[in-house]
Amino acid sequence: MAIEASKEEAGGTRIRYGMVGGGQGAFIGAVHRIAARIDDQFELVAGALSSDPARAKASAKELGIADDRAYGSFEEMAKAEAAREDGIEAVAIVTPNHMHAPAAKAFLEAGIHVICDKPITTTVAEAEELAALVEKTGKVFVLTHNYTGYPMIRQAREMVARGDLGTIRLVQAEYPQDWLTEPAERSGSKQAEWRTDPKRSGAGGSIGDIGTHAYNLAAFVSGLELDEVLAQLTTFVEGRQLDDDVQILTKWKGGAKGMLWASQVAVGNENGLKLRVYGTKGGLEWTQADPNYLWFTPFGQPKQLLTRGGAGALPVAGRVTRVPGGHPEGYLEGFATIYAEAARAIRAARVGRAPDADVVYPTVADGVAGMKFIDASVRSSRAGNVWTKV
Amino acid sequence: MAIEASKEEAGGTRIRYGMVGGGQGAFIGAVHRIAARIDDQFELVAGALSSDPARAKASAKELGIADDRAYGSFEEMAKAEAAREDGIEAVAIVTPNHMHAPAAKAFLEAGIHVICDKPITTTVAEAEELAALVEKTGKVFVLTHNYTGYPMIRQAREMVARGDLGTIRLVQAEYPQDWLTEPAERSGSKQAEWRTDPKRSGAGGSIGDIGTHAYNLAAFVSGLELDEVLAQLTTFVEGRQLDDDVQILTKWKGGAKGMLWASQVAVGNENGLKLRVYGTKGGLEWTQADPNYLWFTPFGQPKQLLTRGGAGALPVAGRVTRVPGGHPEGYLEGFATIYAEAARAIRAARVGRAPDADVVYPTVADGVAGMKFIDASVRSSRAGNVWTKV
Amino acid sequence: MAIEASKEEAGGTRIRYGMVGGGQGAFIGAVHRIAARIDDQFELVAGALSSDPARAKASAKELGIADDRAYGSFEEMAKAEAAREDGIEAVAIVTPNHMHAPAAKAFLEAGIHVICDKPITTTVAEAEELAALVEKTGKVFVLTHNYTGYPMIRQAREMVARGDLGTIRLVQAEYPQDWLTEPAERSGSKQAEWRTDPKRSGAGGSIGDIGTHAYNLAAFVSGLELDEVLAQLTTFVEGRQLDDDVQILTKWKGGAKGMLWASQVAVGNENGLKLRVYGTKGGLEWTQADPNYLWFTPFGQPKQLLTRGGAGALPVAGRVTRVPGGHPEGYLEGFATIYAEAARAIRAARVGRAPDADVVYPTVADGVAGMKFIDASVRSSRAGNVWTKV
Amino acid sequence: MAIEASKEEAGGTRIRYGMVGGGQGAFIGAVHRIAARIDDQFELVAGALSSDPARAKASAKELGIADDRAYGSFEEMAKAEAAREDGIEAVAIVTPNHMHAPAAKAFLEAGIHVICDKPITTTVAEAEELAALVEKTGKVFVLTHNYTGYPMIRQAREMVARGDLGTIRLVQAEYPQDWLTEPAERSGSKQAEWRTDPKRSGAGGSIGDIGTHAYNLAAFVSGLELDEVLAQLTTFVEGRQLDDDVQILTKWKGGAKGMLWASQVAVGNENGLKLRVYGTKGGLEWTQADPNYLWFTPFGQPKQLLTRGGAGALPVAGRVTRVPGGHPEGYLEGFATIYAEAARAIRAARVGRAPDADVVYPTVADGVAGMKFIDASVRSSRAGNVWTKV
């Protein structure tokens, strides 16, 4: 129960937050709200939950948000909340991708911390602009690359960092799904509609939706910086506007190489995110669907199955663990850890301190890196699958 | 997101609840609190969190409970809360086993719904007394056999009920752990201390702590009633006062047979709860550590791996599912479902209705059955491992 | 390639052997023949392949056995082969169970080594008589409890023997199948017919066919001697003459306890033989369907997945391994190892020596033990499931 | 026991064969010999087992080859055996790669059928020359891409062919190993020495040794023809002369795309050959280390685990299966199936017939395709990772 919430920590009460997007019919907003509740560090008090005003109101009512804090637009919300004494300290942005940047900008400028879904924006330029604004305002900006919240991912990162794998040679990442095997965007799936629409998703389809997750995880665990990509984006489903499969060769600074595959048409895969990292001294393998396990092989020794909460779990994993080994934690707990880390950063900011050294979350810089990854991949693919600097 | 909380449901706000036990250093209390928060149906406002008054106060403060609602004893709490206009509607009892009955009694008599950890009491008589009191008061009584909250367990139960397995022949249940392989109760583990102490745990050690879970799950999924047991309780660790391993043959009404094994000294097992049910037409297998999967084999056809959120998931599983297939849910979500079901029952009670037909949770009757299972097993073992009516 | 055959070993050529049973339509005979060929230590030159003379002849012809060595009965074969200068040195007996004892007796008395399928006989008395005859004749007698030939089973036995598990507390064995879920013996399955016929199988159905395998494996790996059983034999399929499911509690000399389950009606199980052994210091788990893996957990340390041919494989496993790790060996290779060990024993006997100390195979004593296990279990079950000395 | 050998089939006795290479200290020769024995279709009677005459003699003696048929060179052997009335009908060539072509040529010209290890030659030109010679002589030429002999691979191929997957979109193949993580070729490993020596292995290291297996399997199962590759060959271990890792993007005729990864430095992988094929209607996944399982997901339906010998196994799998489901077959049985198929082809050739339609084995054409795959990959890599026609 390592991170059991203490509302007294840093001298205070729960962090008041609002939400942009995430109204009725949305998916990821509810995930954010559960994640925010799990460790009891946040309280939802305001929202601009939908671009449709009626749905925004109804959604707010359902979520117990007071009428006068159910806003019709994020601009209005940023302004009004900044003016209130009991205004929100943080906002969660869970809209389609194209709204991330304008909304984040509005809240940062209003002095409100931002927790933003990924990918951070739809262009590199927007992302860089946002990074500059974060720098300027000094606000906390957390990008919810939630898979970095899994305890065994924290463990993997630490094992690489402390040298258990030696020098990294290979970084193999993949994220196959199958839900877009058929043209779901033409049979009424709201999720499929905006994710295959370049106006709302940006230039990348599967690469923006799930490829970035695979890239982010690879970078997070390996501790390496991506140097070049050689990418092939494919649209298998006729009439679809964006890629539904992407195959990438990667070169990382320092000499490691890798492959990255993301697909939405690989029948039989639900959310098959998988990472394998191999170095001169050892190898690691992790699968998102079974996140409580981490395979580790020191070269020349037996394979070990490390478990969250088990004998081989390191303190970095233990700190973000809630229940004992063998009682599985899942997607929502990993997501909650991102919120718990955000809370620590925000509480530190309350008293003008930097967060403690062990606070780890994906930042605006990770967001910029993600956009560069997408951008370089799209350019590589358009240029005929050639090596492209990130 | 099927059970995303609506605080407006049944015309109201969150359910105010208190907690007995679960202060600093405890384990299961924090699990209950997270479970209560996940679907946002409950608000913790009162507590008698420890039998040690200082710890009780400090724990309450940490959890944001107002000073005047941090009680020194459950008796005081039941009385005071019953007298308040804004008093608690429900209480969660998360003490060692021997306190369950007196605490539950106090709150039921005060007109407060009860959510109680398992095993329900330390004797059959106490359990039956409690059952009579629940009957008399008409209050909601929920026993947190949390494994029944897993979506694929709901699915398994439904598949058996609708006949996918034909007539049940075999019910194989097991729950191996290894944390008591050595005498942890003598090296400062608070958890180990009370669980191996007959004064606080009752007559059963491993059988009460985890054997009841295995039994409850077997009964829940198979829909069968246990008839007779032939049990062998063993204490492998010298000096331990209660069993740390139990092996049971089971006979179920209607002719099914089975084996049940629970152990706390099976090295390499964390929480290895596993259930296998075989009938004339099919077989099911489920493992708690990987709860999003359910193996189903229709006789003479290929094995199927059903996944929570996947193509074969039935509505009963979908209703208690929060995130899509391939994004694992875990122990806390299963536990949260028990709380969500409790909330539905309590909201119905608010307006004088019975809960909807699809509300499912372990009841006081299940608690009585569990105590009878323990009692019969202990008697069988003491009598030299003979068949004993439950 | 550790046991690559050398026909020059012990100064000789391949061992000439004959077969009793195993003609057209049989199953296990062909398995024995492949096993005998894999390491090239044996040559099939004679046979009494069927009790049906025409089938015996035809089968012999198919297998390249010379006409004058295709016999109509095992009695004739034993006599004739003993009289030939180039007569067989060994015989493989692969008939239904009731023929094992008379055939083995005939060949032992004719001075011919015996390799016999399990269970050794249909009664304890027969088994003991056979044991006495083996003792008297000094011939090699190998019982094909083939699962003892798997490299990782050899490894498990060695790890227990050298103390990696500490003192053994628990021995959990199971062997579920599903092929007799329906009355296959009444729809033309020859295999099902004799295995459910007490005249040909003896007093045990599933217990004799697969329960003995589970028992033998448990004893082989644990190195323990079985003391008492408490058994429940069940016939689930109406009209079947023998048990199709057996559930047993076991007590082993020295204090270990265990459960043993064998079933032929557990839908979804093909040949689910599984062994788990737990001691004061560690635990082992092995599954026959995935025989190249052995799970080992030293208490308080991470779980290890030992692989045949991998870093943790001990010399006892390596000696009976043919291909590198990651290239799976299977059922036939394990069976072949029994034959390879038999060959070493027979070659030693050729020159009047005892086999080398590292030669390991199931003996007539194991056969007697197996019959006593069946007999005690049947008696326990008939007496109402009471503890019965083995 | 579907392919239990009948030496009477096609009117004859075992096929007499010889072996080139495979003497003491070699690995794959012993595998071929076991494979040849398993179904009892072959008899080893001659050999040129080593380029070292003393080792050749000693190895032959060990294997029971008559002195006068233990040759010092394959040229001598081809000539002498062709001249004998009882000369070999077939030869198995199991030398390092650079000897395949000259040896195969000698035997084909001597009228002797050839079973040859992979990769077929060291250059495309040699392979094409060999193909022309096979065409001209009409002899049987079998390339031992042994993984095509696994029953569930036969099944996968059939399922694709009959349309269970719809139109193929993605072919993902990988073959990670770790045995060359360190410079084993400089610490006395004979296997490592020749496999990293371009003079004996040709231009490809890992791509020739294991990448060809992955490619061959992908082509065999998908039924597709490879069109273009974009490859990156890497040598991670300093001083090594050939690649120890290769990452390839593939385009297949008809529009399918894929990735292929082979590595000898991926720590924790023994022989991790894995194939995944996805089409418009379904997906298949297979792993060599667990070859008795085949995962199949029809889009929108539950995942199925098909097992060799189980309910979903097709006749094409059953025909090459020896033991029942749940009794695992392994690497040697898959290899044996290649030999069993070769035997059928050779027996047909004896009587001037073409093999039956269901006989399936990798041919000289597959060998040419494999060499073109290596050649195109090497060229692509040298040209800076550009698309290259195969």
Explain how this protein is built.
4 copies of one chain form a homotetramer. The first copy, chain A, is an alpha/beta fold. The first copy, chain A, folds into 2 domains: 9-147 and 346-359, Rossmann fold, CATH 3.40.50.720; 151-323 and 368-389, Dihydrodipicolinate Reductase, domain 2 (2-Layer Sandwich). The first copy, chain A, is 35% helix and 21% strand. Chain A has helices spanning 28-38, 53-62, 74-83, 100-109, 124-137, 151-161, 190-195, 198-201, 206-222, 315-318, 331-350, 364-382, and strands spanning 15-20, 42-48, 90-93, 113-116, 141-143, 168-176, 226-234, 245-252, 257-263, 274-279, 282-287, 293-298, 303-307, 388-389. Chain A has a 9-stranded mixed beta sheet. In chain A, a hairpin with a 5-residue loop joins β11 (282-287) and β12 (293-298). Chains A, B, C, D: Residues 183-200 have a biased composition (Basic and acidic residues). Chains A, B, C, D: InterPro entries: Gfo/Idh/MocA-like_OxRdtase_N, Gfo/Idh/MocA_oxidoreduct, GFO_IDH_MocA-like_dom, NAD(P)-bd_dom_sf.
Briefly, what is this?
The structure is a homotetramer of 390-residue chains. The first copy, chain A, is of the alpha/beta class. Helix content of chain A is 35%, strand content 21%.
